Amino acid sequence: MLIEDRLKELRDKINERVPSGIRVTEVEFEGPELVIYTDDPKRFADEADLIRVLARDLRKRIVVRPTILEDPEKAANEIRAVVPDSSGITDIFFDADTGEVLIEAEKPGVVIGKNGITLREITKHIGWTPKVVRTPPIESSTVKQVRQYLRSVNEERKTFLRTIGRRIHRDIPGRDETNKDAPRKDQWVRVTTLGCCREVGRAAFLLTTPDSRVLIDCGEKPDNAGGTPYLYVPEIHPLAQLDAVVLTHAHLDHCALIPLLYKYGYEGPVYSTPPTRDLSAMLQLDYLDVINKEDRKIPYSSNEVKTYIRHSITLNYGSVTDIAPDIKLTFHNAGHILGSAIAHFHIGDGLYNIAFTGDFNYSKSRLFNPAINQFPRLEALFMESTYGGSNDFQPARSDAELKLYETINKVLSRGGKVIIPAFAVGRSQEVMLALEEGMRLGKIPHVKIYLDGMIREATAIHTTYPEYLNNDLRNLIFREGMNPFLAECFQQVDSSELREKVINGDPCVIISTSGMLNGGPVMEYLLNLAEDEKNALVFVGYQADGTQGRRIQKGWREVPLGRKGTITINLEIDTIDGFSGHSDRRQLMNYIGQIQPRPEKIFCIHGDENNTIDLASSIYKRYHIQTHSPMNLETYRMV
Amino acid sequence: MLIEDRLKELRDKINERVPSGIRVTEVEFEGPELVIYTDDPKRFADEADLIRVLARDLRKRIVVRPTILEDPEKAANEIRAVVPDSSGITDIFFDADTGEVLIEAEKPGVVIGKNGITLREITKHIGWTPKVVRTPPIESSTVKQVRQYLRSVNEERKTFLRTIGRRIHRDIPGRDETNKDAPRKDQWVRVTTLGCCREVGRAAFLLTTPDSRVLIDCGEKPDNAGGTPYLYVPEIHPLAQLDAVVLTHAHLDHCALIPLLYKYGYEGPVYSTPPTRDLSAMLQLDYLDVINKEDRKIPYSSNEVKTYIRHSITLNYGSVTDIAPDIKLTFHNAGHILGSAIAHFHIGDGLYNIAFTGDFNYSKSRLFNPAINQFPRLEALFMESTYGGSNDFQPARSDAELKLYETINKVLSRGGKVIIPAFAVGRSQEVMLALEEGMRLGKIPHVKIYLDGMIREATAIHTTYPEYLNNDLRNLIFREGMNPFLAECFQQVDSSELREKVINGDPCVIISTSGMLNGGPVMEYLLNLAEDEKNALVFVGYQADGTQGRRIQKGWREVPLGRKGTITINLEIDTIDGFSGHSDRRQLMNYIGQIQPRPEKIFCIHGDENNTIDLASSIYKRYHIQTHSPMNLETYRMV
Ligand SMILES: [Zn+2]
Ligand SMILES: [Zn+2]
Ligand SMILES: [Zn+2]
Ligand SMILES: [Zn+2]
Ligand SMILES: [Zn+2]
Q1: Model confidence pLDDT, tens digit, residues A248-300
Q2: Cβ–Cβ pairs < 8 A, chains A and B
Q3: At the N or C end, where does chain A have fewer CB atoms within 10 A?
Q4: Measured between CB atoms, which of B188, B230, B237 is closest to A234?
Q5: Is residue B380 part of a domain?
Q6: Which domain holds residue A46?
Q7: B342 & B418 share domain
Q8: Is A382 in contact with A203 (CB distance < 8 Å)?
Q9: B340/B425 same-domain check
């Protein structure tokens, strides 16, 4: 069936169900959604169940938009008139692209009203679909810029979403069961490993069916060798024929090279959660900055980051979404960093289900709930194995925190400084929360905790998306009004003068990027503080093979830094396990032990060679599930 | 280094070694050979060791050609003047394409002379490189046509060979070890399965490195569903970028779709042994004919068969040949059918060695020596598993022959006819040899043995290439002058009148194609003889899943034949195992038991699902070699 015919059929079905008098002017696929345009958005909104029923019967995600949108200024006034002042509205953004108006308020509940009554009232008055968010306690310039940019490319994005919508709902040959003459269609599902197998870094997996091609992640290898996924092999070309890129989370080993895809001809969407979109843009820009400072060749420019944002489509956890004619995507909480997701794919009409964990944490952390391991269906699982080795047991978080407190007390009391290299996103916030509590409860002295790199900005993004934090932290911030991230002990370092002052100043704690010492401001601290044995370098995160972090952790005492010379390492080197955003060996095994349903096949990836092999064989022995430890550049048939 | 620079370097080295006075006019890559053009081919030929030394030092296959070739008519006269009359020259073909003159003679030894003295004399006189072949006892129209066609496209072929020669010897990035700034080159070897996994048919394997891509076989699936390899997946595209197609042998499940590659944009060479080239062209044309008669859509026309022949490059067993910048190919006897080869690939500079057995027979047959299993090096082996099941033991050939004699005696004595469906190539000749001997030794009565389909022509091609038969048979034909293929009991059926006479005539034996009853003249016999229970249908070869042969063998008594109606099966159905051109289970295991060197990995392919899995697990258990039973559409990393 041609797409026009399908839309006509949908329009007819919608008209049948819509009460007479409500005029539907247009029905259109936009991205993964079916958009109903109507002259009567008010009456549509009045029919509280109508959209839900249509969505269920048509098996589509449905959005209703007014044919003509009210003037934003006038609409803003109407919103302020309808919503009680006690809501504390701080901003109103009109997004003509989606026909949504984003209402930022200190008390979103008041804007929404009981059972959504105020919200429906707003819709009736202004046509725009209201979306209410809580005013973030720390303003994020990234989030602001992303939103501004998206508004500035309204028209282009509208065209893009319609193009993608029509591609997603295109006919596939042999789909039409009534046409027996159609060529017999092969049925298969394949995964090609383009990186991140028997190694940590450059995650990239290609999921293909006879009709569709989806790339999951596209990261860099954090070993300073500029390692990229195997994007030159024919399996992934032409990039223009990829249906979708799905991003599990914002760490650079998963997202760094996504903008590059647009340079090489990709024109489709990148699906991620909203926080992942913002965090990844921030980290990509920082990545370009770091490379630039090191005089390495940058793989793409900030223009490609913009192009990526322009093509981004965000989905929240649990929303089942068509991303290709025969593939539905659902994100589930992965517990690893803000917005991190397990990507679950339902392929064909019940043909096959496969999930990619990305990085995940199966224990509850200070920031997040544990990773999800309950799925409607699941035949194959690609799971990370960072701590998959048989001895990779991590201490409990509380023990790790005690050890961190001890180390800090020891170093500070001898007049030294503590350098903690950390990923800007995730690890930094975990350590910040631990240190803030430690200081508040008097377990460590009141010294300054300097944050260098993108850490503060990353923290701001955390507070923009409170629904992605776990309940305890959300309550602490919003109910009890005690936002630990705003504690006065934290100070952002945002100039080289201040950095110099920190280096030459009093004993303190420095949390700085990058987390594996492959560039970033932490190198500046190390260069200046490494020779003094009073100081300490405290690793709180995984150090991948080939990084400076791994070398120093292994005991190197002379570390060459290219044209910056060589660092002589005299300061104390500590590794404190237990802050990881990853599951340790026990949790990885438990995750599989408790997973529902039990998959037929498990592929252990994202771990050193020994770890993936060990985890694969242990899962097979314990649970009798077929496992693989694939190599890069292999293709596995799922069905 | 640019190709021109490399050629200049080679020219300099050659000039250093060539005695002064011999002028080298040009040095050029042509296909896999390095061709030295000289004004003095006579003096070059006098220096008996020169070419051998150059080949060894330059590590190239070297051919010397005169800059200007003598007029063919004049040259033919000179040949006849030099060669003694007793040689019995039957034809002289000049192939301007290669600068070779093919001298067909009843006694080739006389043309060659003691230690090649007469041959060198010829070279000195005429410039053309003489190649001496024995006059085939049965003239093959295929061989004649192929040779005529190749002569008619001389000029185009010359250009083609130079293009290929330059492609084979092109620079590959990162090859230059002196250039440290060159991007670090990934090293990997992969095999992608495009067909023939957990099934018999549509063989197609893609061998790739970062620099080169080689397709091994491209066959059809003999199940009447028009099954083709998965040529639509991106791994193999664009076809124009394939470096080479390597054909193991002429059976349609390995070669049927090679001409199709040219229709879809392939422009490179197909490497095979000379008999495989001729047999495959014959079978491809017959294949088109059969499809056409059945009103199915033909996948390509005879033009593409010509294109294939125009792009064919033949190699004899044992000749180590560059086919890509980093890949050398060597064919070894596979013992399966005439010209059948195991394709051995040496990749990189000692990086990896991998062999594809094609179909092979590890026992000596009436026609061939057993398959080779000694290689200079070998890390991975893709082996056929047709009879890989744990119970797939075949009786000894002598027992099979006895059973065949018994069956024939029984059927003939009750006045019935014996129909033996057989592949035109291989099985037919084995059965012919057994029947001829049986009749000669009085083990079966003297009746006519009718050959229908391409059998006689296939037999003619066998006698064109006596060096590909085993010693016993060669001696019988040439030394003892008793060519069993010429026995008077055999009669070719070449008209529908004769076919009708056979059907209505006296008791007899009919050997006819196709071997699995998926089309061909055998269907005509079956249609007319199946209802009479006096007759018998005797299977002497493997019947693949999905073929009519398999259905009848399994006991179907009503066989639908499309618009030709339905055959009711009343005639006797027999299966006589033991004539197979394949190794049985015991021989497959012995082949691996005795292989040298022991490979690290074995992939069991070309067998039903159970058989490949069973063989893979048995080899692993017995020999502790890592084995796989891959599925179609997978990619395995070798290194
Ligand atoms: Zn991560
Ligand atoms: Zn990761
Ligand atoms: Zn392509
Ligand atoms: Zn064969
Ligand atoms: Zn075969």
Answers
A1: 999 999 999 999 999 999 999 999 999 999 999 999 998 998 888 878 888 99
A2: 39
A3: N
A4: B237
A5: yes
A6: 1-68+153-170
A7: no
A8: no
A9: no
